[in-house]
# Entry
Amino acid sequence: MPDVAVIIGSASDSAIAEKATHILAEYGITYDLQVISAHRDPERLDEYVKTSDATVFICIAGMSAALPGVVASKTKKPVIGVPVSGTLLGGLDALLSVVQMPKGVPVACVAVDGGENAAHLAARILGTA
# Structure
């Protein structure tokens, strides 16, 4: 049973996920890493979130960065969004998407490409930092 579920929207986000999982491992926090797109595989994402035993979700996505908000809409557990750079806007589009969630669908947001801080925040939420 993982403490943290790390979900990336596509394999191209793997480098940011590695930053997060490295820090989680340093803390001794168990995690499960999945590549699930909110747009291309919504049914699989829905099933994963509903059946996950994780206490915290870290969602890493670029461009429209819908993944953190979609996950937050499906769970009452904490969700940390990591916007990813790589577009012409340098991740500003993803950052704005992550921080503009509607009332009742909170997503904590770290810096663009901030996988390390997402893991540190998860550790604090878990009380293991």
About this structure: The radius of gyration is 13 Å. The CA atoms of residues 27 and 116 lie 12 Å apart. The first helix runs from residue 14 to 27.
